[in-house]
Amino acid sequence: MKVVLLGPPGAGKGTQASGIVEKYHIVHISTGDIFRKNVKEGTPLGQQAKAYMEKGELVPDDLVIALVEDRLKQEDCKNGFLLDGFPRTIYQAEAMERLGIDVDKVVDIEVGRDTLIGRATGRRVCKQCGETYHVSFRPAKAEGVCDKCGGQVVQRADDEEETVARRIDVYLTETKPLEEYYEKKGKLAHINGDQDAKIVQEEIFKALGD
Ligand code: ADP
Ligand code: ADP
Ligand code: ZN
């Protein structure tokens, strides 16, 4: 199974991804996570991506495409994959097709702007393992400490309100056209993301055919 998760920043893509990959035994590929890891490690890719990410802009298409192409060639993708945060432009989607990578289903998690801002600005992540928390909706048991690994729980550099607002605007202009693109191919599943995370998960499973 090859699935794409579509949805604005804060929609719940990362949160839903873990349940999906567990149920369908596929690998989770988050381009945002890969970029953050590279920024943290100071690799050439990270150095190129950093300034764009901090401003809430998209990293240039060709950089992202090369990265995904490389990742999908790895052995663990043979059983299928869940792309979280890619494609984010029509150009990226077309490039993926040119590379011969097709997808079975595109899950579009829909959430209104006010909810998105509250979710993204309240998001906290573990520096060590990447686990996601929320100050109100999913607080860590001990403040600032990861339940899973004991790592430090912090705010992402691009989750401050102004940058979140910019990222939502970028989503609306650059990424939202992908909804129609995949709708026309009969691959889009609309999911109401503005409800309890467990219910969102059930609806995604239903759309993917249990
Ligand atoms: P995305 O990967 O789409 O940017 P995340 O999965 O990181 O979104 O979720 C953004 C924030 O909202 C996180 O802090 C997460 O804990 C919280 N969150 C995710 N889904 C829900 C939900 N259904 N209800 C309330 N909060 C949620
Ligand atoms: P969110 O979960 O909030 O939607 P991500 O973690 O997916 O955000 O992405 C964080 C940042 O990484 C983006 O704002 C962008 O700068 C960069 N990025 C991630 N994926 C892509 C992509 N497919 N194309 C361009 N930039 C990307
Ligand atoms: Zn952790």
Features:
Rossmann fold, about 210 residues, binds zinc ion, 9 helices, binds adenosine-5'-diphosphate, 3-stranded antiparallel beta sheet, alpha/beta, 5-stranded parallel beta sheet
Characterise the protein shown here:
The protein is 48% helix and 16% strand. It is of the alpha/beta class and 210 residues long. The strands form two sheets. Strands 2-3-1-4-8 form a five-stranded parallel beta sheet, with helices on both faces. A three-stranded antiparallel beta sheet has the order 6-5-7. Helix 1 packs across helix 9 (197-207), helix 4 packs parallel to helix 5 and helix 6 crosses helix 7 (161-175). The longest helix is centred in the C-terminal third of the chain and has 15 residues, at 161-175. Residues 7, 9-15, 119-120, 122-123, 132-134, 137-138, 196-197, 200 line the site of one adenosine-5'-diphosphate. One adenosine-5'-diphosphate binds next to helix 1, helix 2 and helix 3.
Can you describe this structure in just a few lines?
With about 210 residues, the protein is an alpha/beta fold. Helices cover about 50% and strands about 15% of the residues. The chain has a domain at about 1-110 and about 175-205: P-loop containing nucleotide triphosphate hydrolases (Rossmann fold), CATH 3.40.50.300.
Question: What molecules are bound to this protein?
Answer: adenosine-5'-diphosphate, zinc ion
Class per helix and strand makeup:
alpha/beta
Overall radius of gyration = 16 Å
List low-pLDDT spans.
Answer: none
Give the helix proportion (percent range): 40-55%
CATH superfamily of one domain: P-loop containing nucleotide triphosphate hydrolases
**What is the terminal-to-terminal distance?**
12 Å
Biggest sheet statistics: 5 strands, parallel
Helical segment tally? 9
Output the helix-strand order.
EHEHHHEHEHEEEHHEH
- How much strand? 15-25%
CATH domain class of one domain? Alpha Beta
CATH topology descriptor of one domain:
Rossmann fold
Strand order of the largest sheet: 2-3-1-4-8
Give the mean pLDDT: 96
Q: Architecture of one domain, CATH level 2?
A: 3-Layer(aba) Sandwich
How many strand segments? 8
Shape, please? globular
